[in-house]
Amino acid sequence: MAARPGWQRRLLPLLLIAAALVLPVVFARQAIGAERVTVRVESCDLSGPKATQACRGTWRLGDGRAVSGPVDGTLLRPGTELQGWGNGERATTSLFTWLVAPIVIGGALLVGLGAFVVVWLRLTWRARRGDAAPR
C-alpha cells in the first residue's frame, strides 16, 4: 500500500480539531445571547407532522427592541403569551432544547478527536518500533 502524502495525513486531524472547536460555538450561538422574554405567539402552521410545525411570534428584548421571528417549544397556539428565552433571531419556551445540540455534538466531536489521537499515537509508536503491521 502506497503512503499518503503528508498533507492528506494532516488534513483529517485538522478538520476534526476545527469541527470540535467551531461547531459547538455555531450551535450554541443562539443560546449564548438569550435572555428571559415574554413571547406572544402570532401564528402557527400546524398542518404537517410535529417535526415540521412552525410558529412565529414577537418578543421584546432588554434593550427595548421588539423582535419578530420563529418560536420553538411546546404548547404553542396562536394568541398565547408564554415566558421563554429569546435573542435577536428566534425564541423558545425551553432554553434546554437550545443547549442539547451543542453539548451532544461537541461531546461527540471531542470523543472522536480523542479516539483519533489515541489511534494515531499508537500507530506512530508502532511505526517507530518497526512493527507497523497490525496484529
Compact overview of the structure:
46% of the residues lie in helices and 24% in strands. The chain is built from two helices and five strands; from the N terminus they run αβββββα. Strands 1-2-3-5-4 form a five-stranded mixed beta barrel.
Total number of β-strand segments?
A: 5
**Spatial strand arrangement across the major sheet:** 1-2-3-5-4
Provide the low-confidence segments as ranges: none
Q: What is the string of SSEs from the N terminus onward?
A: HEEEEEH
The total tally of domains equals: 1
Class from helix and strand fractions: alpha+beta
Which of globular, elongated, flat, extended, rod-shaped describes the shape? elongated
The main β sheet shows up as:
5 strands, mixed, barrel
pLDDT averaged over residues: 80
> What is the share of helical residues?
40-55%
Query: How much of the sequence is in beta strands?
Result: 15-25%
* Alpha carbon gap, first and last residue: 17 Å
Helix count, DSSP H or I runs of 4 or more residues: 2
Radius of gyration: 23 Å
Looking at how many chains there are and whether they match, the oligomeric state comes to single chain
Keywords: Membrane, Transmembrane, Transmembrane helix
Transmembrane segments: 95-121
